[in-house]
Amino acid sequence: MKYNQNDLEEITRIFIKLADKLLKDKKIDKYTYIEITKRKKEFLKYIESNKRFN
Question: Could you give the CA distance from residue 50 to residue 33 in angstroms, rounded to a whole number?
Fold first, then answer.
């Protein structure tokens, strides 16, 4: 199944919100939260910079 860029961006945003909720509920520790969200936030930055050039 292929996803378009908007789908992947929305899934990434939902994933970050889930990680925020898990951290708030103390289901994961801060180190795990950082590891989970680091790549996701980099992906969103890449998409934003890519939108500016297209």
Answer: 26
CA–CA distance, 32 with 13 (Å, rounded to integer): 17
The residue behind tokens 């969103």 is 44
Q: Distance (Å, rounded) from C-alpha 31 to C-alpha 13?
A: 19
Overall pTM surpassing 0.70 (yes/no): yes
What the block records as the tokens of 35 is: 């590891």
CB contact set of 49 (below 8 Å; sequence gap of 6+): none
What is the structure's pLDDT at 5?
A: 67
